[in-house]
Design brief:
- The chain folds into three domains: 65 residues; 124 residues, Orthogonal Bundle (Transferase(Phosphotransferase), domain 1), CATH 1.10.510; 125 residues, GMP Synthetase, Chain A, domain 3, CATH 3.30.300.30.
- The protein contains eleven helices and 13 strands.
- The protein has a five-stranded antiparallel sheet, covered by helices on one side. It has a three-stranded antiparallel sheet with strand order 6-8-9.
């Protein structure tokens, strides 16, 4: 799948956002009729041969969905598509699991309206259980992304109604997590009743699917973090916490130029504790793991009142989206803690070249 000719002189990559068995996703600049715009490229020219058929199928689904829904203002528009790739617009926002819109009733009103628009043109997303497929834009509104398993129905058939119901039920699960007081009686009834297809999937197909995808193919998709976040990060964190001068560790994933996924370790430790000492400590693990690309020692990590580390803020630091942190800060003391982390961040070289 040679895409270089079709994109020659039109695509300038900034960073790889994600790489898995079905595609590589890049952020960069695309030259359109009116000049360069921020955009995202999904390409399947580097997928292994045994997943190529599914990759082509998923890409076709996303292309059709974006072509139909891109003008609705609820997702990115399709800018260009060719053999083995597509280019869509960039949405300025963060994923739901980072934004954590607790108590934000307006966001979920916007999300329900977006879903209604999508269903009105006959498209069901089919993958809205994942929080990373819901974005919170800088304007506070909800946006949808990743349409690889979306379907556009020609008629409002029974199958369409079931798929639309499941889209809504998954949205309401997120609403229940972040704004449970805003759920209506009708919405609570939807949450309490899965469709027969969903019940059948969970009782039968799901186990086989997970076995094939995770164990046989080695595919992992945990909010964009991939295998390193699932397998390496817990072991590295446990090793670091065993250091006598370390009180807490938080590791998040970020898109890394060239490799797809990098790890950023934030370590709460005593004054005088050096990054070099910690890297040497990691190297002494019984079963070595690839060390984190970035490791930052700080006297204090931001925490909720319950004591839980605010990983969503650390995620934004790792992504260099520090301009989106301010609305999340809860107190003057937390602002001081975060300012120190932002000032000492290790990923300045990863700034998007746009």
């Amino acid at each position: 799948m040679n895409m270089s000719g079709e994109l020659a002189g039109r695509w300038r990559r900034s960073v790889v956002l994600k790489r898995d068995l079905f595609s590589t996703v890049e952020r960069g600049r695309f030259r359109a009729g009116g000049g360069e715009v921020e955009a995202v490229l999904r390409r399947i020219d580097e997928v292994p041969w045994w997943t190529a058929g599914l990759a082509i199928h998923f890409l076709g689904r996303e292309r059709k969905a974006l072509a139909a829904a891109g003008s609705l203002g609820i997702t990115a528009p399709l800018l260009f598509a060719g053999r083995g790739f597509l280019v869509r617009g960039w949405i300025d926002g963060v994923a739901l699991h980072i934004a954590k819109p607790t108590g934000d009733h307006g966001y979920f009103r916007s999300a329900k309206a977006a879903l209604r628009k999508l269903h009105r043109i006959g498209i069901c997303h089919n993958d809205l259980a994942k929080e990373q497929n819901w974005l919170r834009g800088t304007d506070g509104r909800a946006y949808l992304t990743d349409f690889q398993v979306a379907v556009r129905f020609a008629h409002r058939s029974r199958l369409f109604r079931i798929a639309a119901y499941e889209d809504l039920r998954h949205l309401l699960k997120h609403k229940q997590r972040y704004t449970p007081d805003a759920l209506t009686i009708a919405e609570r009834r939807v949450l309490a009743r899965k469709s027969l297809i969903a019940k059948f999937w969970r009782a039968t197909v799901r186990r086989g699917y997970l076995l094939i995808m995770r164990r046989l193919l080695g595919y992992a998709d945990r909010e964009g973090g991939g295998r390193r976040l699932i397998h390496d990060a817990p072991r590295i964190a446990a090793r670091l916490k065993a250091h006598p001068q370390v009180s807490e560790v938080a590791i998040v994933a970020f898109p890394n130029l060239g490799t797809g996924t990098g790890l950023y370790a934030f370590v709460e430790g005593n004054a005088g504790l050096s990054e070099r000492a910690l890297r040497d400590f990691i190297a002494g693990m019984e079963r070595p793991a690839k060390p984190p690309e970035h490791l930052q020692v700080t006297p204090m990590l931001p925490r909720l009142a319950t004591g839980e580390v605010r990983s969503e803020i650390l995620q934004l630091v790792a992504l260099n989206q520090v301009d989106q942190i301010e609305p999340l800060i809860a107190s003057a003391q937390e602002r001081t803690v975060i300012a120190q982390i932002v000032a000492g961040r290790r990923n300045l070289g990863d700034r998007y070249n746009i």
